[in-house]
């Protein structure tokens, strides 16, 4: 909801133009378009700071590298008067306890639904038209927030979906219940469909690790008009035996790639075969064997070989072997471009935020910041956070992207 003509936010932005900070004009109203939809969990009586103002300040603080409630409150307290006014903050800024209570009481899944829908809109607006061949792929994977473990309960576990190419987060859901959290990754299976329910999956390729190679999952994706590429490991022993028993030696390599990165020489080859019948997995159209051979780039040491099997419902005319290889490898974007970034840039695994919905909401704030930075063309998230921390106007300006 845009600010009205008499809004103090708009007036503050006009003042900023006079002092040479024109980048902030219109920024806060755009941020409000996403955050104003979040339901305030507080009783109306006694509310000093509107929810949208508290959330706007929290997002900007996280964009400046804040990792805790205290860090958010300190960033807000140090804001110059004009920047605070642009955020809609009054003379008395929200303190740590206010920020903590708001974040802990927010409905984490509803909050994530709002911001993920906004990110999806921004991605759709900036993404070039998809060509005649399928190009959109998303990866699903879970992450345990290790710092949330305590004596009475296991750590929180979240399941997220990320766009392969843009590397932005399109959704995240809590793996709810103490039983599911105690089961660790196994609790992700029940959360798979609810997570993807909010996305338009028509003609989208979904990738996931072997945990999600489930008959119920592929039936669900088939009903939603999606396609899938799933790895097969020990949780599907019969299927893996069938795939390993195919006549791979008689087949030629369809695609081979070699590269040297991070001190390692790696050669990847892929073979793909059409499945006529007899594979015990619904909707499967092709079987895939991906072989990785690696050794130190120095040339010393033995080659290490790993063979991975996968299945897909895509037929040969729908996906070339090179595309299948890209999707299988691209699935790990969710580990490298999201989970690893949150751990390194935000020290998420060391975070002591563990009460209420706080862990999930803080993770969603990090996802939001990372996604916006990606849409802005940022490739080094840690460097972007440092840059934002040096100037309080920069986090606000970043949210002006459309």
Automatic annotation (TrEMBL):
Transmembrane segments: none annotated. Pfam families: DDE_Tnp_1 (PF01609), DDE_Tnp_1_assoc (PF13808). Residues 33-119 form the H repeat-associated protein N-terminal domain. Residues 136-370 form the Transposase IS4-like domain. It comes from the Bacteria. SUPFAM superfamilies: Ribonuclease H-like. This is ISAs1 family transposase. It comes from Pseudonocardia charpentierae.
């Amino acid at each position: 909801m845009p600010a009205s003509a008499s809004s103090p936010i708009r007036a503050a932005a006009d003042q900023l133009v006079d002092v040479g900070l024109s980048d902030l004009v219109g920024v806060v109203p755009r941020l409000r378009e996403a955050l104003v939809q979040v339901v305030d969990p507080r009783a109306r009586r006694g509310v000093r700071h509107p929810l949208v103002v508290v959330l706007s300040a929290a997002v900007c603080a996280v964009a400046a590298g804040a990792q805790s409630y205290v860090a958010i409150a300190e960033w807000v307290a140090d804001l110059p008067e004009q920047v605070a006014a642009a955020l809609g903050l009054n003379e008395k800024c929200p303190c740590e306890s206010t920020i903590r209570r708001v974040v802990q009481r927010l409905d984490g899944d509803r909050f994530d639904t709002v911001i993920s829908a906004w990110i999806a809109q921004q991605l759709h607006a900036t993404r070039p038209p998809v060509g005649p061949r399928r190009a959109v792929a998303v990866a699903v994977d879970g992450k345990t927030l290790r710092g949330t473990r305590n004596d009475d309960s296991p750590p929180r576990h979240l399941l997220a979906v990320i766009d392969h190419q843009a590397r932005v987060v399109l959704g995240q859901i809590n793996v709810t219940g103490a039983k599911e959290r105690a089961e660790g990754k196994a609790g992700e299976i029940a959360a798979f469909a609810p997570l993807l329910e909010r996305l338009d999956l028509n003609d989208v390729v979904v990738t996931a690790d072997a945990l999600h190679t489930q008959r119920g999952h592929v039936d669900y994706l088939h009903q939603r008009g999606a396609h899938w590429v799933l790895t097969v490991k020990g949780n599907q022993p019969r299927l893996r035996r069938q795939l390993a028993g195919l006549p791979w030696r008689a087949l030629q390599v369809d695609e081979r790639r070699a590269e040297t990165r991070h001190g390692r020489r790696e050669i990847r080859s892929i073979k793909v075969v059409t499945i006529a019948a007899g594979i015990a997995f619904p909707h499967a159209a092709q079987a895939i064997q991906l072989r990785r051979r690696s050794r130190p780039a120095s040339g010393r040491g033995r080659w290490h070989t790993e063979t991975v099997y996968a299945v897909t419902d895509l037929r040969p005319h729908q996906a070339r072997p090179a595309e299948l290889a890209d999707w299988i490898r691209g699935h790990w974007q969710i580990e490298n471009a999201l989970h690893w970034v949150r751990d390194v840039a935000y020290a998420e695994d060391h975070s002591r935020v563990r009460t209420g919905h706080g862990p999930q909401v803080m993770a969603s704030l990090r996802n939001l910041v990372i996604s916006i930075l990606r849409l802005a063309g940022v490739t080094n998230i840690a460097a972007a956070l440092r840059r934002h921390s040096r100037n309080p106007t920069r986090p606000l300006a970043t949210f002006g992207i459309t």
